[in-house]
């Protein structure tokens, strides 16, 4: 496993890449509403990314046909935007996307409520987000990678939610997916040591029911096996000598 430590120049480029992506998400969040199609979200997202002079890094990645992954309710990740998939009041929608700025990638995900959502859905979204922040308390130089995984697991365990195991976080930089893989569930080993200058995409994917997921016939869309709601929260972060720097916050 070769985890790259970024130079100051690379870190500055990644900061800018992430700043532009955060702006895209801020605009998407304010636009999400009942009656929109998931294809509308994708079209808006791609327009915003290109308007920043950047390239959507998900588009055609391993054959993925869109710029924004739009996953609704029981869809966990990699939902393919469709003209006839219309958001309804009470839905929750997970958006996952990234962009390339001067050769450097950013990646983030958020789950938003569509109009007024149930208390159960609100809690799932809030707790998924909190598990990310609990996880990155351990994302410091000198700690180990799986300290992050174990902290996310400990954050979610009291609620009895399922933590997706088949899909995990990852390193990021001049490639969208770099070493290491970052599980969101408890590990027996501590994993590699963290050093300042590492850039990671930490992304808990949490199901209100069981952890099991299935991949649909489109070979992309991942759903909960039991049909329960799922939430996703991801940021690109920079390991420093002190607190981690969250590069994709807005």
CATH top-level class: Alpha Beta
Describe the sheet with the most strands. 5 strands, antiparallel
Q: What is the succession of H and E elements?
A: HHEEEEEHHEEEEEEEEEE
- What is the count of helical runs? 4
CATH topology: Creatine Amidinohydrolase
Q: What's the CATH H-level homologous superfamily?
A: Creatinase/methionine aminopeptidase superfamily
Distance between the termini: 32 Å
Domains (count):
1
Percent of residues in helical segments? 25-40%
- Using only CA atoms, what is the Rg? 17 Å
Percent in strands: 15-25%
Mean pLDDT: 98
List the helices and strands and how they pair.
Layout (H helix, E strand, L loop, with lengths): L7 H24 L6 H14 L3 E2 L12 E4 L2 E3 L14 E10 L2 E10 L5 H18 L8 H12 L5 E2 L5 E3 L6 E5 L16 E4 L2 E3 L5 E3 L6 E3 L5 E3 L2 E4 L6 E2 L4
Antiparallel strand pairs: 1-4, 2-4, 3-12, 4-5, 6-10, 7-8, 7-9, 9-14, 10-13, 11-12, 14-15
Q: Notable features of this structure?
A:
alpha+beta, globular, Creatine Amidinohydrolase, 250 residues, 15 strands, single chain, 4 helices, four-stranded antiparallel sheet, five-stranded antiparallel sheet
Structure overview:
With 250 residues, the chain is an alpha+beta fold. The chain has one domain: Alpha-Beta Complex (Creatine Amidinohydrolase). The chain has helices spanning 8-31, 38-51, 119-136, 145-156, and strands spanning 55-56, 69-72, 75-77, 92-101, 104-113, 162-163, 169-171, 178-182, 199-202, 205-207, 213-215, 222-224, 230-232, 235-238, 245-246. It has a 5-stranded antiparallel beta sheet with strand order 8-7-9-14-15. Strands 1, 2, 4 and 5 form a 4-stranded antiparallel beta sheet that branches. Helix 3 runs antiparallel to helix 4. The protein is globular.
